[in-house]
Amino acid sequence: MRLPGVLPAVCALFATAALLSCSSAPKASDTVITVKVQGDQSAESGQSYYRQGRFALALQFFSNALTQYTSVDDGAGIVRSYIGVGRCYAALGQPDEAEVVFLRARQRAEAEHDRALLFDSRMNLGELYLSRGEAAKARAIFQEETMEPRQGRTPSQNAQLWHDLGTAEKGLGNSAGALDDLNRSLGINLGGKHLAEAASDYYMIASVYSIDGRYDEALQAASRALAYDKQVESSPGIAKDLYALGLIAAKKGDAAAAFDWFQRSYDVFTTLGFKDEMRKALGGLVAAADALGRTSDAETYRKALADLGSS
């Protein structure tokens, strides 16, 4: 199907095309190599900024990469850039824009007959649905991938598929199925020493345990997630783990521990400029301070929450 609209960055292609049509332009083969290298460099910068949680800047570089790859019709580069752009839109709270871009990625990957690219586009689309609370829709996308030959996926891809299926099962209330899938993913990631992915598995396992009221197991899993995220220096992951530990401690009735975790998560979210998450951490701090009878602290964080506003 045809998808609406054109990514704004692609508008720059007209200027690129005009330059390449000039008689003074370099040979076509040299141009393709040069532009692909530029696209690779832009994409690498986008990945770096994304890992740092600097999503707006990452979006700029992925958009540049998309323009560069499209100017030489590099199918693989186009799909990877669409995925990068879509992930940035999702992180920036623009899910509708992300969905359009991920659908474009899947469409082009199908045209390229590239299993790896099709896998990536499916997974990102399904993960977007998960983030919108559409677990059934997400599971359908992931099950679509399970119909493909297993040998067409790498161990890392199998781990991602199990992780996402587990997350979808969690969203549908199937805790046993979720833990089974997530632990299968964890086993693959630990075996391959994929620490960031293992951290994500532990984080989700902690969430399942917390929902089931298994708070000690939840704290243990979240602590392991934090340890691995620290090893890879993933600031967004560290902040999420700290906040999760605060939530679990609060649910367990340990207000003192919750206060400490929320304070640490707020500090990290602040360095990242994640205002929505800062508000959540401040809300946790207010509740924990009230539970501890720390009236002055509670008022301080209420004021900080009011000052932050809702924008």
Write up this protein.
The protein is an all-alpha fold. The chain has three domains: 1-113, Tetratricopeptide repeat domain (Serine Threonine Protein Phosphatase 5, Tetratricopeptide repeat, Alpha Horseshoe), CATH 1.25.40.10; 133-225, Tetratricopeptide repeat domain (Serine Threonine Protein Phosphatase 5, Tetratricopeptide repeat, Alpha Horseshoe); 252-311. Helices cover 80% and strands 0% of the residues. It has 15 helices and no strands. The longest helix has 24 residues, at 28-51. The radius of gyration is 22 Å and the shape is globular. Residues 1-26 have low confidence and may be disordered.
Write the layout of secondary structure elements.
Blueprint: H1 13-20, H2 28-51, H3 55-71, H4 75-91, H5 95-112, H6 115-131, H7 135-146, H8 155-171, H9 175-191, H10 195-211, H11 215-231, H12 235-252, H13 255-272, H14 275-292, H15 295-308
Helix pairs in contact: 2-3, 2-4, 3-4, 4-5, 4-6, 5-6, 6-7, 6-8, 7-8, 8-9, 8-10, 9-10, 10-11, 10-12, 11-12, 12-13, 13-14, 14-15
Features:
mainly alpha; Serine Threonine Protein Phosphatase 5, Tetratricopeptide repeat; 3 domains; single chain
